Amino acid sequence: MTGRDGGADLQPLGNTPVVILVRPQLAENIGTTARAMANGGLFHLRLVAPRDGWPQDRAWRTASGADRILEAATAYETVDDAVADLHHVFATCPRPRHIVKPVLTARGGAVELRAATARGLKVGLMFGPERAGLDNEDMARADALIRYPLNPSFMSLNLAQAVMIMAYEWWLTEDATPSRELMTNETHVATKGELENFMRHLIRELDSCGFLRNEQKRPGMVRNLRHFFTRGEVTEQELRTLHGVITELSHPRRG
Amino acid sequence: MTGRDGGADLQPLGNTPVVILVRPQLAENIGTTARAMANGGLFHLRLVAPRDGWPQDRAWRTASGADRILEAATAYETVDDAVADLHHVFATCPRPRHIVKPVLTARGGAVELRAATARGLKVGLMFGPERAGLDNEDMARADALIRYPLNPSFMSLNLAQAVMIMAYEWWLTEDATPSRELMTNETHVATKGELENFMRHLIRELDSCGFLRNEQKRPGMVRNLRHFFTRGEVTEQELRTLHGVITELSHPRRG
Fold this sequence. Notes:
The structure is a homodimer of 255-residue chains.
Chain A: E1 18-22, H1 27-39, E2 45-48, H2 57-61, H3 67-72, E3 74-76, H4 79-83, E4 88-92, E5 101-104, H5 106-118, E6 123-127, H6 136-139, E7 144-146, H7 159-172, E8 180-183, H8 192-209, H9 218-229, H10 236-250
Parallel strand pairs in A: 1-2, 1-6, 2-3, 4-6, 4-7, 5-7
Helix pairs in contact in A: 1-7, 5-7, 8-10
């Protein structure tokens, strides 16, 4: 995707926040912003007084196929124009100073944006220019500021990275992926009975070869093996492989 | 920060995960990775077979001052070499296929990494090359895969963006910022007594100018104003300004 060739088949996913880039300097950053928006399911992009005008081919070159977002983007002369039809506007701001304003975390902001859109409100997220960030007049037009909890000794955040974090948090507000799950592919997690069947096979062969000959130590050794094989989930396919391993090791094929 | 001039005063913040870039192609992405690591309080960077060798000046040019991370980075020929001294290794992987492996969300992965480092274990986070991602041999060396919950219809994630999300989630595991708070600057949130004092001032002047002359509607009108002024927190400074507004409107200075 290096030109205006249409890109990915992106479209608005319901009522999603408008991303407003205020006085963006580099068209490349507008492109990478569109890419980050697509990652998080955002679509509506507004540009306030982009330094080099709009549209700019360089934006398409860095958007990795998020062309539809760039094609639908609209440019405005002022922040007031860009937010006139919105109900809530949040402004990202790494170092708010001398300002009396609610400050949200990225996560808190995403949750509030989701709640507002669920009420049918149109919401916007403002991001400032690359170096200076939003000025005091811009921030006075925001309902709240969003400040990311990040390393205070290194606050230099790339514009598209800032957009990425909000897009990611926006996506997460409706994501229900479990924090850990075993991807089992075309097999299934083994039942306790299947595991026990394998343990019996293993112990039988270990008895047979003499590994468990010390009757006093035998119960503890078996228990330790059982602990090992129950530490994580095991799949049916893995048990079949392990059965094979035991069989082959205990009854080696003669050349 | 455009050259090797030292950059920000970064150092390891305790036992933090090692970021392992496997066969990275573009030195620029190594630099932006270092920047994202710094944002999230990560420091240790390892490179497995970087395509153009290491070090590369172009990495320093995109690191925005995260130079210390690049200076401390180490290069390896194989993944096995790069992870040999680590206890847990997680691999980021957008589309794991035909693999039997635990899959974590970014958030779940960060929480597990934090728990492991708290036990004194050394942990690593593997990221694959820009286009192809990690291959099956790489992934077989990971304890678990991390898959970001993101828009499935646009999975093209920039390398530094992928690192940014994990660095951000890592930072959040020990962050206690409230999701919303009023930034009050050099003033304080007003007490209910101070607010009531203002309400009395306002009502007195509204009575005086005749705005509340309808005795039947008066209680409801006063209640509506009270609702408005208690909708959000108000600061002492804002109340002083509002007192001034009421005073000036009701007793305009002549000429």
